[in-house]
From TrEMBL:
KW Nucleus (keyword) present: yes
Record keyword Aminoacyl-tRNA synthetase present: no
Protein name: Crooked neck-like protein 1
GO cellular component: nuclear speck; post-mRNA release spliceosomal complex; precatalytic spliceosome; Prp19 complex; U2-type catalytic step 2 spliceosome
Source species taxonomy: Eukaryota, Metazoa, Chordata, Craniata, Vertebrata
Source organism: Bucorvus abyssinicus (Northern ground-hornbill)
Gene3D superfamilies: Tetratricopeptide repeat domain
Known function: Involved in pre-mRNA splicing process. As a component of the minor spliceosome, involved in the splicing of U12-type introns in pre-mRNAs.
Domain of life: Eukaryota
Region (Disordered): 1-30, 695-715
Record domain Pre-mRNA-splicing factor Syf1/CRNKL1-like C-terminal HAT-repeats: where: 94-395, 418-567
GO terms for biological process, alphabetical: spliceosomal complex assembly
InterPro entries attached to this UniProt entry: HAT, HAT_Syf1_CNRKL1_C, Syf1-like, TPR-like_helical_dom_sf
Coiled coil: 552-618
Alphabetized UniProt keyword annotations: Coiled coil, mRNA processing, mRNA splicing, Nucleus, Phosphoprotein, Repeat, Spliceosome
Length: 715
């Protein structure tokens, strides 16, 4: 688009041509072909057109019709407009409805009726069209015409519930109760949704027809059951009746004081749903009905029946109502049963989520043992012990084995069933993989049980089998203790021999064996056992064994043998505690020359430990020697031991980290012994340092108090 000069121009004259020839207009010539300064795009044109659509047009002027001819002319124009709109698009039903409503406003009912009929020929499935058509007839009090339209509508579209509601409402408003009932009956033949049935029931109840309402409820229930039993419309799983319909039926009977009928409905509902499709809402409603009738025992039976059969995760509301009921009408025992059942449900969920959670099984079993009967407890125990650990490692079996132990103890102590207890022990022993590991506790408990049953051969057989299959220190000790209690000393000797063959490094076993022989008075056998023990190449606690042997000889007052034992022990170890113990033995012997022998041993020990790297042990020896001399020594010996005591000095040493880097310095205490010739220069240096320090302190004190020095000089 250009400016005004660029617009095309056409001339008014046409070129004249010869006669009989067509006139051809002159071609417009554009003089200015330069573009305009302001260019307008197509997008801008469309936007302006859209904006101008919103501009309000002035209303058409009011037209006053003064005579019949003008009215007819107006009607003709309007009808022509409506017909043109319909002809342009027949499927737009709103045009038909506007046309019919305009004719209705002119009281042209016949014409409006004709328009509606034409529209139905175009789209008979349009619900709005039927409703407007029937409403027009009802507005103009054309009842029969309205009935005819409703009949045609429900025949053509029987699944549109709005037609049925409008039709029954019209008949009821006209007072035609029988006609309305007849329409409801026709509707029910189509098996509509639940609300339709309830509308029919409410209709009968409005006219106090309780028996008819009951009959409708019965048909309604039968309709619900029909897909399950009579029709092949859907499988049983897909078509399932709703519990709320049964509850509504029962409450209807209860509301009208037909309590026996209401109870019968609930019972039929329970029977109908069975145990496969139980619903907690049905049983809650049933129990509340019985509670209202003061039938508390029946309420309790209903709740327990439902709780025993409905899965716990689907019975939360049921359990809640049962708890409230027991708190209102039950005793303490009933309330405790409720709490126990709730805890039992929690434990069931825990063990179901993780069957190998043995702590949850222990809590569950403790709860069951406190409340349930023996068969229930046994059932839970069997379920618990069935969860055998998948891995054959002892750490995974340590918690599991206590399930068997508790099971056996329950059978023996609570159920008093010794036969079942024996079976539990034997089953557990067979289950344990003895080649990889065993549980000595299980064997010993089984043997102790057989002893309590006065069946000693079976107890010995069990322990002998355990030692043969999987020998352990604990098994040997338990078997020996049993025979000791029975005073079977020959059996004890044999068991100790087997035990020491199995574990010769066990010092405790050697000591116990020797103590047994000592108790029996066989000193030579006890001494021989000790000699065998100390001659073993490998021992777990040799110091304990040697101490026990030495104490044994001291008790027998064999002092020479005790000295020999100390000398033999010192050949193996030069530990300071051995020397101190040897010296204290000589001191406690109580014979002549004991002090000199004790002092001699201290001398030997000090000489032997001069080359010892552990200076603290040598200090410990000297302190023990000094304590001895302070109690029993003379001034000379005391002075001598004081000269042997070391000097304690503080030193520093360099530390290194694990990676070899410098980690700083560390302070520690070291000891300098006067006897060591290498330490003599150090001792002289220390003495000189102490003397210099003392002089420094004296000079500082003199400077601080000069008056004192003057007084001293005058004096």
């Amino acid at each position: 688009r250009g400016d005004g000069a660029g617009l095309p121009r056409t001339g008014g004259k046409m070129a004249s041509t010869a006669a009989g020839k067509q006139r051809i207009p002159k071609v417009a010539k554009v003089k200015n072909k330069a573009p305009a300064e302001v260019q307008i795009t197509a997008e801008q044109l469309l936007r302006e057109a859209k904006e101008r659509e919103l501009e309000l047009l002035p209303p058409p002027p009011q037209q006053k019709i003064t005579d019949v001819e003008e009215l007819n002319d107006y009607k003709l124009r309007k009808r022509k407009t409506f017909e043109d709109n319909i002809r342009k698009n027949r499927t737009v039903i709103s045009n038909w409805i506007k046309y019919a409503q305009w004719e209705e406003s002119l009281k042209e009912i016949q014409r409006a009726r004709s328009i509606y009929e034409r529209a139905l020929d175009v789209d008979y499935r349009n619900v709005t069209l039927w409703l407007k058509y029937a409403e027009m007839e009802m507005k103009n009090r054309q009842v029969n015409h309205a009935r005819n339209i409703w009949d045609r509508a429900i025949t053509t579209l029987p699944r549109v519930n709005q037609f049925w509601y409008k039709y029954t409402y019209m008949e009821e408003m006209l007072g035609n109760v029988a006609g309305s009932r007849q329409v409801f009956e026709r509707w029910m033949e189509w098996q509509p949704e639940e609300q339709a049935w309830h509308s029919y029931i409410n209709f009968e109840l409005r006219y106090k027809e309780v028996d008819r309402a009951r009959a409708i409820y019965e048909r309604y229930i039968l309709f619900i059951q029909a897909p399950l039993f009579f029709f092949n419309m859907a499988p049983l799983v897909l078509v399932h009746p709703d519990v709320k319909n049964w509850i509504k039926y029962a409450r209807f009977e209860e509301k009208h004081s037909y309590f026996a009928h209401a109870r019968k409905v609930y019972e039929r509902a329970v029977e109908f749903f069975g145990e496969e499709h139980m619903d907690e809402h049905l049983y809650v409603a049933f129990a509340k009905f019985e509670e209202n009738q003061k039938e508390f025992e029946r309420v309790r039976v209903i709740y327990k029946y439902a709780l025993d059969r409905i899965p716990k995760q689907d019975a939360q509301n049921l359990f809640k109502n049962y708890t409230i009921f027991e708190k209102k009408f039950g005793d303490r025992r009933g309330i405790e049963d409720i709490i126990v059942s709730k805890r039992r449900f929690q434990y069931e969920e825990e063990v179901k989520a993780n069957p190998h959670n043995y702590d949850a099984w222990f809590d569950y079993l403790r709860l069951v043992e406190s409340d349930a009967d023996a068969e229930t407890v046994r059932e839970v125990y069997e379920r618990a012990i069935a969860n055998v650990p998948a891995i054959q490692e002892k750490r995974h079996w340590k918690r599991y084995i206590y399930l068997w132990i508790n099971y056996a103890l329950y059978e023996e102590l609570e159920a008093k069933a010794s036969k079942r207890t024996r079976q539990v022990y034997q089953a557990c022993i067979e289950l344990i993989p003895h080649r990889k590991f065993t549980f000595a506790k299980m064997w010993l408990l089984y043997a102790q049980f057989e002893i309590r049953q006065k069946n000693l051969p079976l107890a010995r057989k069990a322990l002998g089998t355990s030692i043969g299959k999987c020998p352990k220190n604990k098994l040997f000790k338990g078997y020996i203790e049993l025979e000791l209690q029975l005073r079977e000393f020959d059996r004890c000797r044999k068991l100790y021999e087997k035990f020491l063959e199995f574990a010769p490094e066990n010092c405790t076993s050697w000591i116990k064996f020797a103590e047994l022989e000592t108790i029996l008075g066989d000193i030579d056998r006890a001494r021989a056992i000790y000699e065998l023990a100390i001659s073993q190449p490998r021992l777990d606690m040799p110091e304990v064994l040697w101490k026990s042997y030495i104490d044994f000889e001291i008790e027998q007052e064999e002092y020479e043998k005790t000295r020999n034992l100390y000398r033999r022990l010192l050949q193996r170890t030069q530990h300071v505690k051995v020397w101190i113990s040897f010296a204290q033995f000589e001191l406690s012997a109580g014979r002549e020359g004991s002090l000199s022998r004790c002092r001699q041993i201290y001398e030997e020990a000090n000489k032997a430990m001069r080359n010892c790297e552990e200076k603290e042990e040598r200090v410990m020896l000297l302190e023990s020697w000094r304590s001895f001399e302070e109690e029993f020594g003379t001034d000379t010996t005391k002075e001598r031991i004081e000269k042997l005591m070391p000097e304690k000095i503080k030193k520093r040493r360099k530390l290194q980290a694990e990676d070899g880097s410098d980690a700083g310095w560390e302070e520690y205490y070291d000891y300098i012994f006067p006897e060591d010739t290498a330490n003599q220069p150090n001792l002289k240096l220390l003495a000189m340092a102490k003397l210099w320090k003392k002089q420094q302190q004296e000079s500082e004190a003199a400077e601080m108090d000069p008056d004192k020095d003057v007084d001293e000089s005058q004096s």
